[in-house]
Amino acid sequence: MSIQTVPTPAGDARIHWHPAATGTPRLVLALGHGAGGGVEARDLVALAAALPAHGVTVALVEQPWRVAGKKVAPAPATLDKAWRALWPELAAPGVPVVAGGRSAGARVACRTAAELGAVAVLALSFPLHPPGRPEKSRAEELLGAGVPVLVVQGARDPFGRPEEFPAGTGPVAVPGADHGFAVARSAGVTQEDALALITEAVRDRLAGLP
Hints:
Layout (H helix, E strand, L loop, with lengths): L1 E7 L2 E8 L8 E6 L9 H9 L5 E7 L1 H4 L8 H16 L5 E6 L1 H13 L3 E5 L14 H5 L5 E6 L17 E3 L16 H17 L3
Parallel strand pairs: 3-4, 3-5, 5-6, 6-7, 7-8
Antiparallel strand pairs: 1-2, 2-4
């Protein structure tokens, strides 16, 4: 793993590179973090550990506000601006790039995927609506991504359960998992099982990309 500092209009960002074990990668999977945490999120760490063995370079993107040690994420437009500035570095390996992230990071990927030339989007714990406010839907961001989107969603995510998602988005449901993919003891699956489900679903979807 190597860390690259990249200047953006919102301040310095960092890319945590996890190179494909096969040498030249088949794809780059670029993943941004959420508004409540960083690149140490359990799902991001699991994907960065699992996918390089399958020819995928994983780039975990640390937004400038996290690099600067701030506690609160900036406005979506600022997040998008930093992501756009980072994109040439994410595309530098010269292979197709899948844009993605968890929660707010997934929203950034959806809003910018088509203009930046991403071949697909991976949306982990997409915040379909604020908790308890289903009328405040963000479904248009998913439906308007302009590229294929894979949604992976916890079955008890208060920001949107899998069955709440619009037709055509087909989320992969993670049993017993919340917004951070933490699994309740009563779920009938272990935390390790849940993370394995996530990594296998993503691996299979990426394998099907041209």
